[in-house]
Amino acid sequence: MWTWFYKLASPPHVYGLSGMLAPWFLGIATLTIGYGLIDGLAFAPPDYQQGDAFRIIYVHAPGAWMSTFIYTTMAVAGAIGLIWRIKMGHAVAAACAPIGASFTILALATGSLWGKPMWGTYWAWDPRLTSELILLFLYFGAMSLRSAFEDAAQGDRAAALLAVVGVVNVPIIHYSVVWWNSLHQGATVAKLGKPAMELSMLWPLLSMLLGFMLFFGAVLCLRLQGEVLNRERQANWVRQAVKS
Amino acid sequence: MSTVPNGLGVDKVHIWRGDRHVLKGVSLQVSPGELVHVSGANGTGKTTLLRVITGLLQPEQGTVTWCARAINRSRSEYQTRLAYLSHEPALKGDLTALENLRFSVGLKRRASLEELRETLKRTGVAQCADLPARVLSAGQRRRVAMARVLAMRASLWLLDEPFTNLDSAGAELMSQLLQAHVEEGGLAVVVAHQALQIEWPLRRLELTP
Amino acid sequence: MTVGAWEAFWLIVRRELCLSFRRPEQLFQPLVFFLIVTTLFPLGLNLQLSLLRDMAPGVLWVAALLSSLLSLDSLFKSDADDGTLEQLALSGQGLVVIVTAKTCAHWLVTGAALVLISPLVAIALNIPSFAFAIMMASLTMGTLTLSWLGAIGAGLTIGLRRSNVLLSLIVLPLAMPLLIFGAGATDRAISQIGAAGALYFLAALCVFTCTLAPFAAGAALRITLE
Questions:
Q1: SS (H, E, C) chain B
Q2: Which stretch of A49-63, B49-63, B89-103, C202-216 has the lowest confidence by average pLDDT?
Q3: Is A130 on the interface with C (CB under 8 A)?
Q4: B174: in domain
Q5: Which are the contacts of B18, defined by CB distance < 8 A and separation ≥ 6?
Q6: What is the ipTM of this complex?
């Protein structure tokens, strides 16, 4: 029963699996993002307070969720690589980092655009924005650290340790709106109990989140293939795979 | 997995450094009173093998055991029993020879300053005891490092090119100390690209690229 | 007759202090840097005394942060360069004890020294003397936390090219909460609002870091020593 789990430690298996999954992820992602955008931008009712400006939530919120989700994935994958010495863990972590950084930039940029009409400013030094910015720096730090080592395996382990140390920031981002008086609105969906959002607004949002997840999955699979080929370039199966 | 009941066992160790397969399934058994001379051309992984035995470097495959237990289980305890002499003599330039010994040996066992001075005398650098290490010559520093190995009273000696920078008197002294160590039941793994002048049966491990 | 962890800890601390005091000029460098950086702000911004007081906590803390970072690079560097770090790692004492001893000794000669000269800097920045106690308390906890964060970063970047830049890149994001609460506590002390909340939070950060960082820093050393 656990064999499928053990197989995930095998590079050729991961390579094949990623290649198979990527087009499916991409296809379903296109559909869900397409639905989410159309429904969210055109058909969902305008917010009673913010009017149509709230619609940026359909990109901003999923983007922000993905930024923390990917960081956590990166930290967990790195930890697996560190503790059990499974090289595929490090490959996943390395593949995740730029994707996570991109989502963080997306969240910060869309949030900034939203802030101007809502709060009157493109930026405020409030706890959630600050901790999200720290997250971006943590991504950059992990990527720089990994590439600074000549021995790639050492670089992987160092970056994994840094990612694990930085994971402390993730709950801070999430709970910052609870612990401090923040400009940023509180959690409306990601909390226990009934979501505080009207259903016709919620469906496109959830669809966008699913779409972003699948998009992340697709890009991860493609990047992971590249990582695996690079890391295993001496192995025989790579020569076969590249030839075909 | 073959282990040595009261000694060092290295079993099919593999190490990759980047793309290079440096150690390809190296095995070694050392019992008390045995000396192993590891030789090979440059780049064949002699220093790497020694570092794997110290426990600093984890092999990708294979195990290192001490007294039939894997060193990963009780790394600290194992490391108290060994003395490692690396390529550089590893001395702090700002500390005197005596202080260098005190701060490194003192972490493994309590040794009085008189005892450390005696050890420095034994390796022929008694006059350097109160001089900062940076003013010592390369040969004198190597002798201070030897004194450190002696003072640690370790069972397992792991020496990487111990004859570097030593004149003929120093080389002879080193050989004598090695011999005395294995005669008393100690173990030693010595990396050297020249032949060892020791009247003690030694085993050779030749590493090939 | 093995040496216990406590004994080993004190031996390593003595070693570090011995080494630091053999090169006294290197002890002064971070402190002088601290003084210079705090001078830069009022000079560059050409502020009136009252405005200077408002900015003072932030300026003080940023300067303390930067001068601590400057000295953190050398935490493991010299030992790694001459091979003594390996010898320490092979002493059988465990990396956690070694890292704890080195970091504590490092804090004593940098962080503690910084806290002691902070009143001087505070006077230059027009911070009122009744705020000194809280300022020094917050700086003590802050520099201690920073020493630990820096130990993790230094452990990860030993021997890399431009390690000081990379070290700053790694440590500064982790140190941002520290800055927020440390400067916040000092600020509240100056405005004479209760600084207790910020101090408690700072203390919590300090305790959290001091408890977990030794293990992270030990792991970092193990990775770099391979």
A1: CCCCCCCEEEEEEEEEECCEEEEEEEEEEECCCCEEEEEECCCCCHHHHHHHHHCCCCCCEEEEEECCEECCCCHHHHHHCEEEECCCCCCCCCCEHHHHHHHHHCCCCCCCHHHHHHHHHHCCCHHHCCCEHHHCCHHHHHHHHHHHHHHCCCCEEEEECCCCCCCHHHHHHHHHHHHHHHHCCCEEEEECCCCCCCCCCEEEEEECC
A2: A49-63
A3: yes
A4: no
A5: A150, A151, A152, A153
A6: 0.89
Q: What is the mean pLDDT of chain C?
A: 89
**Arithmetic mean of pLDDT over chain A:** 86
Closest CA relative to residue B197, chosen from B165, B160, B162: B162
User: Strands B187-191, B156-160: parallel, antiparallel or unpaired by DSSP?
Assistant: parallel
Measured between alpha carbons, how far apart are the two ends of chain A, in Å?
32
Interface partners of chain A (CB pairs < 8 Å, 3 or more) are: B, C
Model pLDDT, residue A103: 95
To 5 degrees, how large is the angle CA A131–CA A132–CA A135? 90
Q: Which helix (H) or strand (E) holds A44?
A: none
B176–A contact, CB cutoff 8 A: no
Share of chain B above pLDDT 70, in %: 99
Tell me the C-alpha distance between A48 and C105, whole Å: 60
Query: In whole angstroms, what is the distance from residue C151 CA to residue C171 CA?
Result: 9
Chains touching B, CB cut-off 8 Å, 3+ pairs: A, C
Does the distance separating the beta carbons of A234 and B17 come in below 8 Å?
A: no
DSSP-assigned letter for residue C158:
T
Q: What is the pLDDT of residue A193?
A: 60
pTM, whole model, 2 decimals?
Answer: 0.89
B157 lies in a domain? Answer: no
Strand B61-66, strand B35-40: pairing: unpaired
Phi and psi for A199 in degrees, rounded to 5? -60, -40
Cβ(B123)–Cβ(B147) under 8 Å? yes
Cβ–Cβ below 8 Å for A234 and B58: no
Give the model's pLDDT for residue C92. Answer: 87
The whole-angstrom separation of Cα B139 and Cα A28 is 71
Residue C93: which of C213, C156, C214, C9 has the closest Cα? C9
Question: What DSSP designation does C131 have?
Answer: G
pLDDT at C48: 72
Kindly tell me the burial class for residue B177, based on how many C-beta atoms sit within 10 Å of its own C-beta (0-12, 13-18, 19 or more): middle
User: Residue B68 belongs to what domain range?
Assistant: 1-79+192-203
Q: Report the residue of chain C nearest B51, measured CA to CA.
A: C226
Whole-number pLDDT of residue B199? 74
- Residue B139 in any domain: the answer is no
Low-confidence ranges of chain A (pLDDT < 50): none
Domain spans of chain C, in order of start: 5-225
- Section B45-69 average pLDDT: 89
